[in-house]
Amino acid sequence: MSNSGLNRVSFWFDSLDSVPEVEPPAELPTNVDVVIVGGGFTGLWTAYYLKWLQPDLDVVVLEAMTVGFGASGRNGGWCMGTAAGVSELLANPSTRDSGAKVLREMMATVDEVHRVCQAENIDCHYSKGGTLAVAHAPFTVKRLRAEVEGYAANGFADYCHWLSAEESRLRINCTRNHGAIYTPHCAVIHPGRLARGLGEAVRRRGVRVFEATPVFDIQDSTAITTRGAVKAEFVIRATEGYTDSLTSHKRRLIPLYSLMVATEPLPVEVWDEIGIQQRETFDDRRRATTYGQRTVDGRIAFGGNESYLFGSRRKPFITTDNTRFTELESTLHEMFPILKRYEITHRWGGLMGISTDWHPYVCVDRAKGFGAAGGYVGEGVGASNLVGRIMADLVLEQDTDQTHLPWVDVEPHRWPVEPLRWLGGTTLTYLANRADQAELSKGERSGFWDSLFRFVSNQVF
User: Fold this and answer.
1) Which residues are bridge partners to 172 per DSSP?
2) What is the helix (H) or strand (E) element at residue 235, kind and residue range?
3) What single DSSP character describes residue 9?
4) What is the helix (H) or strand (E) element at residue 420, kind and residue range?
5) What pLDDT score does 461 carry?
6) Taking the CA atoms of the chain, what radius of gyration do you get in angstroms?
């Protein structure tokens, strides 16, 4: 595979020191202990902890392109101390204890990622500055403050706290800032450097990583590639949004695209006005998700605008003339008007894997020699680390606290056939944007669009 075009993956790839030329391996092994399909965060963390627990294990990673080419090298770079579905678990009395266990594990995961980076000398620009969820309208303050109170009521008063509008503006001087939730349990990272660093770390531990090796199906304990089959005691599917490319695994996870842009490096005086001096990550809790970070070289990397392509279609790159980039840049400029003076230097897109319940999962079928994990809904930088530890424990039959978390052995049902999932996803995206636009223009909740959004969301998911 030629490296020409790899700078189109993302700003993160473009800013790497180098990406070595990748050539297909001359020969693949035919029998190993564990085959991991997918060279992203899930696959690499799983490989890392398998070798940590059992160094003599013969572990192989098969990657279609190059390590970190997919979502792991294109995301927003938030290593979060929570994950999709945790709030719902905490809110339900019957699952509250399970939710608390996941949250504690995820809070500890932020530090575990840092520990590994230090141990393996991975310079991923890690900075634990926390995250800010800004109230973009006055009517959202009550809901966000109730969220803070909910965490405290469940024994997590130290997880987050409320910032008044004045306090919030001192941290992040964006427009429409009516206060914010702040949690210290989030770190910002350079995802490309983390993915590539993990790739080198697992190689040093004896994992064989075969790049430019597409897998087109997994049949129980056999990975079938374009150049032959690799049989193992366990085959682990770690393909996230690319799962639909596997013949026997259609509709397990659907790919949902998110777009990102990055500015040129900004002068000190601009940062003096904007804030986020501790490199806090930020969002403003719109339905159409927005998220951003301050990079180590002084840019803003900003994302949002999710979309689904009919038939779970996947593109290697999103072209920079996509009109949705214009919408995303308008949102960024609306939040920080001073940025209109500065150039957007990078535009890219990546896909995340979405399960039917929108929650992460990890499962192992010992009889079939098969394991699978994913479904992070765009929150996988931290969650993939915890999942990798769980998967390693399950494969090696380690009974740990993590193997009893609610994510374990609950692979969701398949998504419906087309055109149902396209109609559902497209309608929901449209309603989310209309509700956000109505509320931003009026400064109050849109009863009509909000009701439609909630109704369709409940029907689709």
Assistant:
1) 275
2) strand 228-237
3) S
4) helix 420-442
5) 52
6) 21
Task: Find out whether 62 and 35 touch, Cβ atoms under 8 Å.
Answer: yes
Amino acid identity for residue 21 in this structure: E
Distance CA 98, CA 373 (A): 19
Sheet hosting strand 161-163, strand order edge to edge: 161-163, 180-183, 131-134, 281-283, 290-294, 300-307, 254-263, 344-354
pLDDT at 322: 77
DSSP state of 121: T
**Mean pLDDT across the chain, nearest whole number?**
92
Assess whether pLDDT exceeds 50 at residue 194. Answer: yes
What is the 3 state secondary structure string of 270-321?
Answer: HHHHHECCCCCEEECCCCCCEEEEECCCCCEEEEEEEECCHHHCCCCCCCCC
pTM beyond cutoff 0.90: yes
- The answer to whether the CB of 407 falls within 8 A of the CB of 372 is no
Query: 93 Cβ partners below 8 Å, 6+ apart?
Result: none
Closest residue by Cα to residue 172 from 346, 369, 326, 335: 335
Predicted pLDDT of residue 1: 37
Query: What is the per-residue pLDDT across 250-302, written as a single tens digit (0 to 9) for each?
Result: 999 989 889 999 999 999 999 999 999 999 999 988 766 789 999 999 999 99
**375, 255 contact by CB (below 8 A):** no
**Structure token digits, residue 315:** 């593109």
Beta bridge partners of 362: 373, 408
The DSSP code sequence of 135-185 is --STTHHHHHHHHHHHHHHTT-TTT-EEE-HHHHHHHB--SS---EEEES-
Residue holding tokens 């572990």?
Answer: 59
Tokens describing residue 256: 């949902």
Query: How many other C-beta atoms can be found within 10 angstroms of the C-beta atom of residue 24?
Result: 14
Collapsed DSSP state (helix, strand, coil) of residue 354: strand
